[in-house]
Design brief:
The protein has 223 residues and is an alpha/beta fold. The chain has a single domain, classed as 3-Layer(aba) Sandwich (Rossmann fold). 53% of the residues lie in helices and 17% in strands. Strands 2-6-1-7-8 form a 5-stranded parallel β-sheet, sandwiched between helices. A 3-stranded antiparallel β-sheet has the order 3-4-5, covered by helices on one side. A hairpin with a 2-residue loop joins strand 4 and strand 5. It is globular. The relative contact order is 0.21. Bound molecules: 2'-deoxycytidine-5'-monophosphate. 2'-deoxycytidine-5'-monophosphate binds next to helix 2, helix 4 and helix 8.
Length: 223
């Protein structure tokens, strides 16, 4: 069974995807982590993320691996565990920039599809999992929330981690990432026609999880 969860940055899709994977013992595949790993390499190489040729050249000799871990996935870039290093706003932005390039997508999509097929039972999460990677997924969910709510969640999370951040800046960054992800030509962020749209604005995490759980269980009995 393949469960595909898509949605914008900060919609809560990663948290829900991980909870679902744990609940059913499915493999969790975080596709965004792979774009982030490429982004980290681009940053380290000092390449301009809008320079398609240079990014593609760099990708030719890039090895990315995802490994299931206790708390989600571990991400390896050319053999180095970069799981922590890729979780910054800056890398998220670069990831979104390089995700515009069709050749970058083609390669990562192929790997993501292979991972899902190998796992057989998987929760796969990203922007195009229900539209491009697994158009025949058994369950398709599109999670969303207002930009203000998403920025607020992110703000609280960063403050809790002791960081000095500005809500306004986070909101601007979220809107910019939405714009990049929604307007790119190849596989723009959008719900699959047969996706169930879940708006998490104003909802508690557990409430959303129960909603998704019911949906998945229903599909399981239909299979
Ligand atoms: O989900 P995330 O924030 O880790 O993703 C980072 C960026 O990677 C996102 O802004 C766009 C890109 N991405 C993508 O284009 N397709 C995916 N399936 C996953 C992520």
């Amino acid at each position: 069974m393949i469960i595909a969860i898509d949605g914008p940055a900060g919609s809560g899709k990663s948290t829900i995807a991980k909870m679902l994977a744990r609940e059913f013992g499915f493999t969790y595949i975080d596709t965004g982590a792979m774009y982030r790993a490429v982004a980290l390499k681009v940053k380290r190489a000092g390449i301009d993320p809008s320079d398609e040729k240079a990014v593609l050249k760099l990708m030719e000799n890039t090895d990315i691996k995802l490994e299931p871990a206790e708390n989600g996935v571990r991400v390896f870039l050319d053999g180095e565990d970069v799981s922590g290093l890729i979780r910054t706003e800056e890398i998220g932005k670069i990831a979104s920039q390089i995700a515009r390039f069709s050749q970058v997508r083609k390669r990562l999509v192929q790997m993501q599809r292979e991972l899902g097929l190998k796992a057989k039972n998987a929760v796969i999460e990203g922007r195009d999992t229900g539209t491009v990677i697994f158009p025949d997924a058994d369950v398709k969910i599109f999670m969303t929330a207002s930009p203000e709510e998403r920025a607020n969640r992110r703000y609280r999370e960063l403050v809790q981690r002791g960081l000095d951040v500005s809500y306004e800046k986070i909101l601007t960054e979220i809107k910019e990432r939405d714009r990049l992800d929604e307007t790119r030509k190849d596989s723009p962020l959008r719900p699959a026609e047969d996706a169930v749209i879940i708006d998490t604005t104003g909802k508690e995490l557990n409430q959303v999880f129960q909603e998704v759980l019911q949906l998945v269980k229903k599909r399981m009995t239909q299979k």
